[in-house]
């Protein structure tokens, strides 16, 4: 065998060894997923384990002492009327806001899926609430709902819906404050759900939609019997992410109302922050924070199974 042939064969073997990892999809997949798994472990897993440990202790801020108390913190928070109000608010705000988001997102996705002049600009503007910092956007909404300078109140008065002696104090009334919180949640989550549903609409088989048109199906019949069933996996994922983001959100409630008036607009995240950080009771704050975790896990498992079953069915 000549020297050149041996070198050529050696070069081929070295290249083959270099490509061996790329040919092993299992090892390559694990290698590429390792940074994401490390991120979840460090920034989610460890804090969650620490929260579980604190929830069964009498730990307080500024103290290194640890005394195991079992489920005492959970028993205390369950008997707290403010906690029960916060739990109800969390569920109500999440369900109402996500219901509104899904209706508006489906409508916007259908509009944006139709070619028209300026469609790219409209898509960019719709994405703005999602990319804007929550602190900055929430402070803007504080001015919108301000007791004196509320643009909503001035607009309602200008069109005659508010009399000269009538005025809406958005953050002074529990019902109006709840409406304000739901409005901001809808404004924040609408872009995400719209983009997800728009991607789903763009991937629908055109043959199926054209066949429905040929069969004489009207707009609502195509929407309810053709598009929405095909979009169910994507719709399920959008609802799941929206529910998790809304139910665990602290910024909107804390920046708008700080749980007021009179602790009537607290959600679990804001009440856990108030008790655990501001109140220095880390054990009770941790118990409040992890209370909704099992519910969210069950909801996530159920919705993902529905999405997977729908995909298999199609």
How would you characterize this protein structure?
The protein has 314 residues and is mainly α. The protein has a single domain, classed as MetI-like fold (Orthogonal Bundle). It is built from 14 helices and no strands. The longest helix has 32 residues. It starts with a helix and ends with a helix. The N terminus is likely disordered.
In N-to-C order, the SSE pattern is HHHHHHHHHHHHHH
Q: Helix content range of the residues, please?
A: over 70%
Tell me the radius of gyration: 26 Å
- How many extended strands? 0
How many structural units, i.e. domains?
A: 1
CATH architecture call: Orthogonal Bundle
Which fold name corresponds to the CATH topology?
Answer: MetI-like fold
What distinguishing features does this structure have?
globular; disordered N terminus; MetI-like fold; mainly alpha; 314 residues; 0% strand
How would you summarize the topology of this molecule?
Blueprint: H1 3-23, H2 25-55, H3 72-78, H4 81-112, H5 119-131, H6 134-144, H7 151-158, H8 174-202, H9 206-214, H10 219-247, H11 251-256, H12 268-278, H13 282-290, H14 293-313
Brief characterization of the structure:
This protein has 314 residues and is mainly alpha-helical. Helix content is 75%, strand content 0%.
